[in-house]
User: Fold these one by one.
Assistant:
Number 1:
Amino acid sequence: MLTISQLAAYAGVTVRAVRHYHKIGLLPEPERDRSGYRTYDAAAVVRLIRIRTLADAGVPLAKVQELLDAGPEEFADGVQEIDKDLRAEIRRLQGTRSRLARLAAGEHLALPQSVVDYLDRLRGLGVGERYIELERDAWIMIAAQVPDLIDSVIAKKHEELDDPDMVRLYSFFTGEPDWRAGDPRIVEVADILERLMIRAVEAGEVGADDFDDQFVDLMDSTMLESAPGAELVLAILKERGWRGWTRIERVPADRLPPS
Amino acid sequence: MLTISQLAAYAGVTVRAVRHYHKIGLLPEPERDRSGYRTYDAAAVVRLIRIRTLADAGVPLAKVQELLDAGPEEFADGVQEIDKDLRAEIRRLQGTRSRLARLAAGEHLALPQSVVDYLDRLRGLGVGERYIELERDAWIMIAAQVPDLIDSVIAKKHEELDDPDMVRLYSFFTGEPDWRAGDPRIVEVADILERLMIRAVEAGEVGADDFDDQFVDLMDSTMLESAPGAELVLAILKERGWRGWTRIERVPADRLPPS
DNA sequence: CTTGACCTTGACGCTGGGTCAACCCTCCAT
DNA sequence: ATGGAGGGTTGACCCAGCGTCAAGGTCAAG
């Protein structure tokens, strides 16, 4: 006959755990000797080891009880199910490992790969790190609000970057992004942007996107919030008869303000 | 700006969890809008996703806080450590899977492989299943009390089984193990056992074991508890001048009771 | 007889939130 | 303007699976 600590040690559990199993009725209370000590037999060892095998597999104790007190085919089914969960858990941990490695490598897990690639392309064009951080934050906000649109938006952005004028536009954002009203470069930016807009209108791309108004508003306001100079550039373009940013519109000539 | 549910959804957590992180100071409380709603920016998204990445890896939230607020080399070390734990956990789960498979196959995980092999050999000799269960339980009790001796004991048992007389002895245990005083077969068993003992004495094996007295007592009492007929056989042998079971002793001739 | 290692019951603590409850804010359709 | 849906807010209680005292009774050895 065994004492509780012998039983516990052999099964690889603590004495406290064994008593817990008694309390919840998972392991039957054994006989006591004359001094009140519990005395265990081989059946208790077998049961306890089964309990641990299942519990180690992550099975809640209540289900362990069900399984151990069920018929053999029910037991086999349950074990099958548990094994499936174990395999899934192992895969999950492997995924966690790779995410952890990416986190340690300094990757921004807050954004889908497409956006990361886009930002890398900007960086490759010589765009300053401070501006890229602004863009990154803006894309995070957009991705958080419309996660399923982000890939198609980024695809459009990539197309835009195929245009050398657009590349020139971005190169303005190199270095300090602290634009101030009166900076003469703002006019240069506006000139480039206007050329791009004209080309877009000529190519019939205006109004050709599949995004709804609400989303266009989101893009515009996010970009305006993040890029301080954008407001000033937009003001100039507005004088020249343009409206919009994400979606370009030409204001009718008769409503143009006097230049 | 994001609401709490947008933030939570994007990071793949519940609103409740985000508020929990605020309460424990893991994620800073953001500004509120005029109606008291929390408004989140991109930095919160980044921080929350980092929290989740670490928490998914099983890191307790208190340590997550430490890590995120620490320097880069401390962070890298911590991640290294976590990844080590993850690998260990994956190996543990794979071990659990194999134990689970053995459990489902009806194996007795309560005994080391050596004992299982020994019992299989008995089964192969035609020993009855009921007796084998008795032996199994006895070995479980012994293994639980002296786990590091069990392998050498079993090795001795295997040697014994090389003797045809011992095999004959075991074959008596086939079928019902309910021995009763007066059963003539008990004398047969005693005869065989005596032959074995004489041979052991002649081979100089008596007293040649490396086990201490306490352990010999344990073996004897366990076997006597489990095998009901053993007592009767031992009584006959005692009359013939033998003592012991695990460790054989020849009682000096002058102390022999009259036969 | 003492000492130290066990045994007993009982109660509280811990992680990481889930799950109400009770109430406020905003927006949209009527 | 009104009512309802669908957000948001705090607060309080609840869970598993034990760990960790606390406050003693028992056993074996010296």
Number 2:
Amino acid sequence: METIKGFRDIENASKRRVIVDVIENVFKLYNFQAVETPIIENEKFVVGDNPSDEAVSDVFKLQDKGKRKLALRYEFTFQLKRIAKNKKLPFKRYQIGKVFRDEPVTGNRWREFTQCDADIVGCGLKDESEILKLISDIMNKLGIKFVINFNNRKLLNEILEGEGVSGKDKVLVIKEIDKLDKLSEKEVRANLKKFGAEKVLKIFKEKESYFKKYKSYSEIKDLKDICKLYGVKINFQPFLARGLSYYNGSIFEVKTLSKSGVKETIAAGGSYMVNGVQSCGISFGLDRLELLAKVSEEYKKVLIISFNQDKKAIEVCEKIRELGVGCSVSYGKPGKAMDYANSYNIPLVIFIGEDEIKKKKIKVREMNSGKESFILESKLEDFLGKFG
RNA sequence: GCGAUUGUAGUUCAGUGGUAGAACGCACGGUUGUGGUCCGUGAAACAGGAGUUCGAUUCUCCUCUCUCGCUCCA
């Protein structure tokens, strides 16, 4: 009966549904088009061109009866290689779904989790600012205080090469630098000594103006400027690196500012190549948004209690549903039905019995106040409109 | 994956080398036309497997699991 490590039942997913609605609506406002892709793919395809990438070891692997080597999707981006073919650019697609990673579970990390991705294939800096604005819109609509940290891989490479760090060391040094927001400077310095790269640490402590001397800084500046047009603030963080090796330009990471116990990144993305086309995307972690979002899950609900007047009860129930209000009929004892309404936060109960039939009116009871009134069936729409 | 830690009803917690307890929740009834109170009744657990023992939920070992670090990541 237990769920597998890193997997879980979500017994009440209504908040998640509301959040997904918000995200999806914003995606659509930016002209992203929905796609769905298979959860299972060939292992080779999932693993991709970077078998040295740390991510590869986290891929869930499986085999079918035909002994094909398969794997669960680790993310959505690699599938874009197939989807994005022969599309007029820029191709803007979004996808919301489960991804799987065979990695350690701690805190707000799962092995099965839901990502909400929006990517632009054929994407310049100006389009990148659109993605950043989209992040801002979504976070605001979800009522989450946030900061968007950003950096540029080109700049990072330029700095490291300028300090004589190259080859394999470069990737490893980047990983150590990435920890600057987590570990103390001393610890990072100690780790960097292994590569003789401790001197780069000083550079990352410099003010932003220091970085002007690098050629790639122009991308930082340009992105900031375009974001201003959208009124989006982004925070330049020269040591931000991101783990995935395919990023080749801007990289983003969204953190929350609220004291919530969610230290993890709640959305992340950056620019990369898809089939030789410059692209850029963002991915939101639904499971973390859920912990932070301030959204209302309440919606109108009615419970009808039928006293052996099922025909009428069902008729009224159907009518309420047609009005777009949730409704169900209880045929049992009224006491139980009301207890049920309490348990599931149903604010309105309607009684339908002999009395109601005789009076040609239905009795509605507001559960919070206990106030009851007889209304004409034809006035039901008005009543529900005013109620809640 | 490594290191430390944890594991008893759905949940939060008691407890014992010899029949496993509470609270809340759930189900039924008191109350088949009126709920949130109250009362009664009931269902429901020792993570799994080996070992020691007359007997193990309790002690030992292994596996799984929880939490926290590390690596990494939404």
